[in-house]
Structure formats: C-alpha cells, structure tokens
Design goal:
The protein is mostly beta strands. Strands 2, 3, 4, 5, 6, 7, 8, 32 and 33 form a nine-stranded antiparallel beta sheet that branches. A five-stranded antiparallel beta sheet has the order 25-26-27-1-34, with no helix packed on it. The protein is elongated, with a radius of gyration of 31 Å. A hairpin with a 4-residue loop joins strand 6 and strand 7.
C-alpha cells in the first residue's frame, strides 16, 4: 500500500471470523529501514517488504509468525537499489518485489516462497530521473502491472508478463515546464471489475518555493491507453495515495491535502463515478497534520485508513494513525499509536483484524520498521489513544491536462541476496488468557447478534459504562439495537465490543393508484441500491406495471434490505358519474364500515387481500339504492391489507391497516 513519506504498496484481502492475538513490535531495529508492504499469507505468517538505508540502499523481505517473531529475513542489493519497494504474490506461490533502480528506472525481482531469486529485470525511460515509490499487482489474465512515482519524476505505469517481459509502459506528464520540477510521491494501482486499471498518485509543479502540486487519479485500459485523468487539488500541496473500487462500482480515492480542510495537512477522501466525475469529497483534520498512506475496504463498504498524525517539526513529531469512515465517508473513530511514527501499510487478516507496517522510533533510530496486528476496533490491547477528527465537505478543483510518453526499455539485472539473522522487539501484545468478546460486529436494523465472552468466570453485560445497568448474566447475550452501540462485559476484567448498526433510508413506491383499461404504470425503486427483487421475479430498478399487487425488495451495498408494495387498479374509465367508495375507520381493529354511493346497480363484489397478495376473503354484496353502508368484521392478524371493490365495470382498491 501507500507510504506517506518513505513507502508505497497495495494488497487487498477478504475476511471472516475473529481473533485476538494482537501485538506491536519492531524488526531489525538497528538499521535505517522503512516498512513498506505487509502481506498476510494465511493469518499464520506475514511478509514485510521494506527499504534499507537512504539514497542507494536495498530491499529486505522479512517473514514473521502471527505474533511478530521473525522466521527468516532476506536482503537484496547490488549497490544501485533504493526507494520504497512493494510486493505481490503470484499464483505459483512466488512473489514479485519492485523497487527503484538508480539512476533511472524500475527494478522487479521475482523470488520463491523462501526468498530465493528466480529472475530480475530493470525497466528504464531515458530521462525519467528515478522512481522511488512503488505499487504492484498481479493482473487477472496474467502478468503484473507496476505503478511508480518519485519527487524527481512523473507517474509511471508498466505492464509486464509473468517472466518480466515488458508489454507496454506509459509515463504521464502534467502541467510542467522547463523551469519547474515535477513532484510525485506515493502511488496506488488496482484492477477494476471491468478489467481496467486505476492509478492514484501526485504530480504538478514547484514554482517560486510553493508546493502547488496536485493529486492525480487516472484510468488506463488493458492496452495501456489513458481513458481519463483527474488532477485534484488547490493552491497548496495535495497528494493521492490509495484508490479502491467501491461496492457500487465507483471509485474512492485517498490522499492528503494542504489546500482544503481544517489543518495544516488533512486527510482527503473523494468518490468518483466510473467516467471520472466527482460524486463527493471530504477532509478530516484536527489542526495539526493528518497524513494518509493506505486504505482497505470492509465487506460492508466501510473504509479503514492508515497514516500519521502530529507535527513533524515539533519534539513529539508524528504518531501512527488508524481511522474509520463508513461507506458514505462519515467519520467513525480514529486511534493514535504512540510507538509508531508512520503507518505505511494496512491490510485485512482473514480473522477480521488489521495488520499494519511502517516506521517509527526504536533503539535511538527514527527509521526502524515495525509490524503490528490490531483487532476490528483498531486496538492492539495497548498503546491506544482515541481522538476525533473534524469532517468537512469540500468541492476540490479538478483539471484534466496531461501528455503521455511511452519509450521504455527492458534489461536483465543482477542482484545479490543475503540471509540475515533478524531480531524483533515486541512492544506490547495481547494476553491470550485475557477476556475478549466475539460476534458479528455489523448488523442491519432489525437483525440480532449473539455476543460471546471468552476467558471469563463472572458475567455481567451492559450497554452502559455503568455496571449497575445489567442486560444479562450469562457468557452470551443476544442483542438487537436500533443504532450503533457499545456493549460492556463486567467480570474479572472489563471488556467492550462495538456493534455497528446499519439503517436504510425510508423508501416508498408511492400511493396505490388506478389506471384506465389499456394503460400501464411505471414503477421506479431508485438507482442507489445494489439489488432489486420484484414479486414478478424481475431484478431491474424500474418495472412497467399493468394491474394487481406489486412488491419490491431492495438491498443496499451493506446487505441490508427493505420492502414496499403498491396496488394498481384498472378502471374502464367510461362512466361520467363514478361511484364514491369509502372505508372507515382506518386504521381499525378489524371491524370497519364500507360506504358506497352514486351506484345504481343491485350487486357487487368485495375482496380482502394481504400484502403478500393472498386472498383473505371474497364476498358478494347486495346494493339497496343510491347510498349503501356495510359493517364488516375480519378475524386477521395486525398489518396492512387491501380491499378491492368491483361494481360492474368499475374496480377500486382501498388500503387499510388492522391494529
């Protein structure tokens, strides 16, 4: 995922289940080293790809167990490797490491599952000036896509095959001039569900001492052709560091901004449509710097963002930061990590926890690499400081100027690999005998969940910080809150669990209606939902209705559902004097009056139908004259019902509620 100052990478995973083996620890903390990518293999081992030294240095690959203990460590160097590397896994259980090759170019090293080199290649553009920040993904139809950026170069994206053969390469230039220096920092690349690629980075100018460079998001098709480019920013320094495809198929872009928000640097989050149009944009800040480096998307569309908070030019400097927003960008929580200077990368473990990597302070070294594992609330079980960020809606300036250069070359490259004896220093870790709570942490309104406390002999549950308000005294409790709630368990120790509750907006197909014979009625369930299911079996947003009862169930992108119904009646529309039909009282207890006036025939039919379309009762009525009234009694359950009254060629439907 993305490194804020030093590092840049991307890995995405799905998750299920829950675990509590949390920890925070430093690796090989005697070297100048910066954490780049953390790669979760199977929740039993982690791979940390990092850079060694500043300027000319090398790359390191460290494998640890799930508690942060080093299993093995390799260092790759030939005297010309530098910058912030990235890593991805191949289908053949090998790994591709990418880094910067000085003085120009991108270095790719394919290694085995034990770290041995399979092949190594270098890709250059004649005057590119070096690429420092990297991201790499394996492409669904084979090979790899590498994105790179640097303070001395321009955004670069290249496609290679599984053996490192160069397929195509593009170097993106923006609004630059001969007297200006292009600025490019972090980068991110993803493959979309349609097979295109999205790259988020930064480009622009430094002029007269001003950092007026902007964040950039551009879309590339599988052949390498640029589809669109968005340069996002204002009058000061702005940079984009991570992009994900949202559950609705649109794109969410993460970065940091000095042009907007409430602080020196604020986190900026923007959502774009597939064609590049801006949907919304927000900043999050609290007065000092909030730096964004990496982001993962949860199964319900919520986002976990990692980076740093603080002020680099004070004695306290930066602290690591992890924060959460929902799928609409609304702020949820933020945690400050005192023992971590930057969180450069975050990914999801299969047990619904978060694994992070970055750089911090250890043994007098400000550039020591660390790895940590947090639970689903962003806690290590130690070293945690919750704080609140101000959320501001903004409309950033967006430009589209760019040009493309494509003259890349490929060359073999020789690297040395060394086995290194690594050391680790675990700062804090979870006590396996400590109490903890498990259960689904997100439900829809109306659903319930059972929470289970582990390692406890005394049980008392509460939804309050006061233990005197008791909800249950067993090891489990089943709850169904109407809003997000924190549940507390008081026993030998105090443990809490945040249960997120998703509520859907109100929804209606509209009032029941009558159409003339031969006419249709268009029903529209809206276009902001994930799935639609009509009682007719159709799964479209809209439906052409003829007559009868129509029910639609809509499901949003978090998996929550809601239903509504409408009854369409048909009238021949031939009579000038239509009968007047009323039902009262409404609502009622199952006993009500039906009044009919203005109808001269001597009989009619009434039918009672439930919301599922099932006929409850059918009754023929005899009419005595111009004004008729009937007392009806129903023995039915509470709920909504329809009464269909048929008088010759005239049909009318009335909706009523039984309470």
């Amino acid at each position: 995922m993305r490194g804020v100052v030093f590092i840049s990478c991307l890995v995405l995973f799905t998750f299920c289940g829950y675990s509590q083996n949390t920890f925070l620890g430093y690796l090989n903390n005697t070297e100048q080293e910066n954490g780049s990518t953390v790669f979760v293999e199977d929740d039993t081992t982690y791979l940390i790809c990092s850079s060694i030294g500043f300027g000319v240095g090398g790359m390191a690959l460290t494998k640890t167990d799930k508690f942060g203990a080093i299993i093995w460590r390799k260092e790759y160097s030939s005297g010309i490797v530098s910058g912030a590397p990235s890593i991805t896994k191949s289908v053949n259980n090998s790994y591709l490491l990418v880094g910067s090759s000085q003085p120009v170019g991108i270095l790719a090293i394919n290694v085995s599952s034990t770290g041995a080199i399979n092949w190594s290649k270098r890709y250059e553009y004649l005057w590119n000036g070096g690429q420092h920040f990297m991201d790499v993904i394996e492409v669904s139809n084979g090979g790899y896509l590498i994105a790179a950026s640097s303070p001395l170069a321009r955004p670069t994206v290249i496609r290679i095959d599984q053996f490192g053969g160069l397929l195509w390469g593009n170097l993106l230039t923006g609004a630059t001039s001969s007297s200006s220096q292009g600025i490019n920092h972090q980068c991110s690349v993803i493959e979309t569900s349609t097979g295109d690629f999205l790259i988020g980075t930064v480009t622009g100018l430094i002029a007269s001492g001003q950092n007026n460079y902007s964040g950039t998001l551009f879309k590339v098709n599988p052949s390498g052709n640029i589809e669109w480019v968005n340069n996002i920013g204002g009058s000061n320094a702005d940079a984009m560091t991570e992009v994900v495809e949202a559950l609705d198929g649109n794109y969410v872009l993460l970065g940091q901004t000095e042009s907007y928000g409430s602080g020196a640097y604020d986190v900026i989050l923007s959502k774009f449509a597939k064609n590049g149009d801006l949907i919304w944009s927000k900043t999050y800040g609290v007065g000092n710097d909030q730096i964004a480096s990496s982001m993962v998307q949860l199964g319900n569309g919520d986002l976990i963002i990692a980076g740093a908070t603080g002020n680099l030019f004070t004695s306290s400097g930066y602290y690591g930061m992890v924060m959460k927003v929902n799928s609409s960008g609304n702020f949820q929580w933020a945690n400050k990590i005192a023992n971590a200077m930057y969180v450069n990368d975050i990914t999801i473990s299969p047990d619904n926890s978060f694994v992070i990597s970055g750089s911090g302070y250890a043994n007098g070294n400000w550039s020591a690499v660390y790895i940590g594992k947090m639970d689903s609330t962003g806690s290590f079980g130690c070293d945690l400081d919750l704080f609140v960020l101000n959320e501001v809606n903004i409309t950033p300036t967006i430009a589209h100027n760019y040009s493309v250069l494509s003259n890349f070359t490929e060359a073999s490259h020789i690297n040395n690999v060394n086995d290194i004896i690594g050391t680790e220093n675990i700062m804090c870790s979870w006590d396996p005998n400590a109490p903890y709570i498990t259960g689904d942490d997100t439900i829809c309104v109306g659903d319930s969940v059972t929470l289970l406390v582990h390692n406890e002999s005394i049980n008392s549950w509460s939804s309050s910080t006061s233990p005197s308000i008791v909800l249950g005294t067993d090891s489990t409790i089943t709850v169904s809150p109407s809003q997000t709630t924190t549940y507390w368990h008081y026993g030998t120790d105090t443990t809490s669990f945040v249960l997120n509750v998703i509520s859907m907006n109100s929804f209606s197909l509209g009032a029941d209606t009558i159409v003339c014979e031969g006419q249709t009625f268009n029903l529209n369930a809206g276009n902001q939902y994930a799935d639609y299911l009509w009682s007719t079996g159709d799964t479209t947003e809209t439906l052409v209705a003829v007559s009868g009862l129509y029910i639609v169930t809509i499901t949003d992108f978090s998996g929550c559902s809601i239903s509504d119904s409408i009854f369409i009646s048909v009238d021949q529309c031939t009579s000038i004097n239509e009968p007047i039909i009323t039902l009262y009282p409404n609502p009622n207890n199952g006993q009500f009056n039906l009044s009919i006036s203005g109808y001269q025939e001597d009989e009619g039919v009434i039918e009672i139908i439930d919301v599922a379309g099932k006929l409850v009762i059918r009754k023929q009525i005899n009419l005595n004259g111009d004004n008729d009234s009937y007392l009806l009694t129903l023995n039915v359950l509470s709920g909504a019902y329809f009464m269909r009254v048929t008088l010759g060629n005239h049909t009318e439907v009335l909706r009523f509620i039984v309470i």
